[in-house]
């Protein structure tokens, strides 16, 4: 139990919140949601709160970035350019605003004490084991955040959790449904197959010039190349400024002396415990019984301390540490509940404490070891100190440089060279790009809109200096322009013919295969050459791709053999014979647990969606015409 608390303190709280500092927040601050963003015009309203086109663009980019990070090479940018994707993002924004408005109405606001408690538990904001306001502000400043912004993020997270957690916690799995699903997932089927090649219908495939022209006429939008530009641009960022700053040895030595605690490890202590658990709200008699049990174990250990591991395994009610002979590993200050921590940091090695009371019950603690605080020598951390000093000086210099940069690109609208010379920057060249496929930094909504505007394309003048991310300014100018055009029929004729041939071949082959399957189902064996029998599961494999697995396990097995089929990526069609169904004799506990978790999550998502829809319906939601149209 205590170990779980320690893991949460080091795990979800620290890691999640530190991740929120380091990357673009998935959710915006409460003020951002509670106020209309006038830039870019409104695309929707939730009650009296607006959603601007710029806010929608930011969220589309944020969700696209998360998908790119999660899917890696499998990420398809085209998915995020569809109207369906934009609508889904807009719907999510509407739901979030509605939920926050509901939380406000119900006065589900985070107390100041809660915010202070959360901040105090984040190791990155601590110095010598305690919260440091100076370090807190420095960490946020390095990541382009302010304390007010970050605390609003925490308040918003609290509000959303407060209004949604009752629904999420109400979901529970059905044991019968879980077992039924597990049996279906574990089921295997014995199959054999035969493949019909595309060549079986090749002679029937006919594509005429008239077919090609008709397809071209009906699908001209698919052959339209969007407007494209090439641009030259300048990037002024804090990193570039920092790279040009020289840091003296004396400045390094002074910073190291003033901040030595940052470059070391605080004192760590390792301990084991035996927990007699009792809820803090339990009545006096129950707590007294738990205390008496703990006192009894303490008396045993006074006489036979070597039995600590044995008693931890058999008597402790903290399952995680009991399995480790009571060991909680090493930890520093601020990582355990206060009564436990105070006891541990007042003990001597191998000392066993009297029962210590906490909200979780009574602990008998043994101090296993002390690892003294350490400070890394300057030689080891010099590079980090230099980097930090450069960042600090760059932050101060950047404001002045940014003002001058902004003025120069505006005053010399026909050229970026004056700004490049003054800031010692190199003018960079882009490749050909469209508004939808623009790479960084041109995928920033503000920069993209400015660069692709008719005025910029016609005048080829500098855009204003636009902050594409905290501490990064970009100005660009169009150097070449290609207007949108429809590719001529002659240019795409071969592509259309190949597509039509493939579609025709697939249709004819499917029709032929389906006729054979119907004949087989009637017992009319057509003298086909079947493969050897093979037992397969639902997971896609070399034998069955996802489409094949779906077909094999979707076909009714009431009467065997059963027949089904599916198209393959190589253009052939595989006819499959299902000869046996093998049910699992025992259900894997891990599979049951996984399915149970999945069922609960599905219930939670459905319930949350229903609740959000209900709340949104009461907020008078208005979506403007053309809200989800892309560029």
Could you describe the 3D structure shown?
The protein is of the alpha+beta class. It folds into four domains: 2-173 and 601-623, Orthogonal Bundle (Triger factor/SurA peptide-binding fold), CATH 1.10.4030; 188-219 and 488-582, no CATH class; 227-253 and 379-483, Chitinase A, domain 3, CATH 3.10.50; 267-372, Chitinase A, domain 3, CATH 3.10.50. It contains 22 helices and 21 strands. The strands form seven sheets. Strands 18-5-20-19 form a four-stranded antiparallel β-sheet. A four-stranded antiparallel β-sheet has the order 14-7-16-15, sandwiched between helices. The chain has a four-stranded antiparallel β-sheet with strand order 10-9-12-11, with helices on both faces. Strand 3 and strand 4 form a beta hairpin. The protein is extended and about 95 Å long. The model is unreliable at 1-40 (pLDDT under 50).
Give a summary of the structure in a few sentences.
The protein is of the alpha+beta class.
């Amino acid at each position: 139990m205590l170990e779980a608390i320690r893991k949460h303190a080091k795990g979800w709280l620290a890691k999640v919140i530190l991740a929120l500092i380091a990357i673009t927040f998935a959710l915006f601050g409460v003020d951002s949601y509670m106020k209309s963003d006038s830039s870019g015009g409104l695309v929707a309203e939730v009650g009296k709160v607006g959603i601007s086109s710029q806010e929608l663009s930011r969220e589309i980019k944020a969700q696209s970035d998360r998908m790119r990070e999660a899917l890696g090479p499998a990420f398809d940018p085209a998915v995020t350019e569809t109207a369906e994707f934009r609508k889904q993002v807009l719907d999510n924004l509407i739901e979030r605003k509605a939920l926050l408005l509901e939380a406000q109405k119900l006065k589900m606001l985070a107390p100041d004490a809660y915010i202070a408690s959360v901040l105090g538990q984040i190791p990155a904001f601590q110095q010598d084991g305690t919260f440091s306001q100076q370090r807190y502000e420095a960490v946020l400043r390095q990541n382009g955040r302010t304390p007010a912004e970050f605390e609003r993020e925490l308040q918003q997270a609290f509000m959303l959790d407060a209004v949604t957690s009752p629904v999420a916690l109400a979901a529970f799995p059905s044991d019968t449904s879980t077992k039924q699903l597990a049996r279906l997932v574990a089921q295997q089927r014995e199959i054999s197959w035969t493949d019909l090649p595309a060549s079986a219908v090749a002679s029937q495939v006919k594509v005429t010039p008239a077919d090609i022209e008709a397809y071209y006429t009906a699908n001209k939008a698919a052959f339209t190349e969007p407007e494209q530009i090439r641009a030259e641009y300048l990037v002024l960022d804090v990193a570039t400024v920092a790279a040009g700053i020289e840091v003296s040895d004396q400045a390094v030595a002074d910073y190291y002396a003033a901040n030595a605690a940052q470059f070391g490890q605080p004192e760590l202590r390792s301990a084991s415990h035996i927990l007699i658990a009792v809820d803090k709200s339990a009545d006096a008699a129950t707590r007294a019984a738990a205390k008496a049990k703990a006192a009894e174990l303490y008396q045993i250990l006074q006489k036979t301390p070597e039995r600590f591991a044995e008693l931890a395994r058999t008597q402790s009610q903290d399952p995680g540490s009991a399995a480790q002979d009571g060991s909680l590993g090493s930890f520093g200050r601020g990582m355990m509940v206060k009564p436990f921590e105070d006891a541990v940091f007042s003990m001597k090695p191998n000392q066993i404490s009297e029962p210590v009371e906490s909200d979780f019950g009574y602990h008998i603690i043994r101090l296993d070891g002390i690892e003294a605080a350490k400070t890394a020598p300057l030689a080891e951390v010099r590079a980090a100190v230099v980097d930090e000093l450069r960042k600090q000086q760059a932050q101060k210099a950047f404001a002045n440089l940014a003002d001058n940069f902004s003025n120069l690109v505006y005053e010399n609208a026909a050229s970026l060279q004056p700004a490049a010379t003054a800031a010692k920057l190199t003018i960079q060249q882009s490749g050909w790009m469209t508004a939808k496929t623009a790479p960084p930094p041109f995928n920033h909504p503000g920069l993209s809109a400015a660069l692709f505007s008719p005025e910029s394309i016609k005048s080829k003048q500098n855009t204003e200096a636009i902050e594409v991310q905290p501490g990064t300014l970009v100005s660009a100018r169009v150097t070449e322009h290609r207007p949108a055009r429809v590719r001529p029929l002659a240019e795409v004729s071969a592509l259309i013919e190949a597509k039509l041939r493939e579609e025709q071949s697939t249709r004819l082959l499917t029709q032929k295969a389906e006729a054979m399957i119907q004949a087989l189902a009637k017992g009319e064996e057509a003298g086909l050459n079947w493969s050897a029998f093979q037992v397969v599961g639902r997971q896609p494999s070399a034998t069955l791709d996802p489409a094949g697995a779906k077909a094999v396990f979707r076909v009714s097995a009431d009467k065997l053999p059963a027949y089904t089929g599916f198209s393959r990526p190589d253009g052939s069609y595989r006819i499959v014979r299902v000869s046996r169904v093998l049910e699992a004799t025992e259900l894997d506990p891990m599979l049951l647990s996984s399915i149970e978790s999945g069922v609960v999550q599905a219930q939670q998502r459905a319930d949350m969606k229903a609740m959000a829809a209900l709340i949104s319906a009461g907020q008078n939601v208005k979506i403007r015409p053309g809200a989800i149209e892309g560029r």
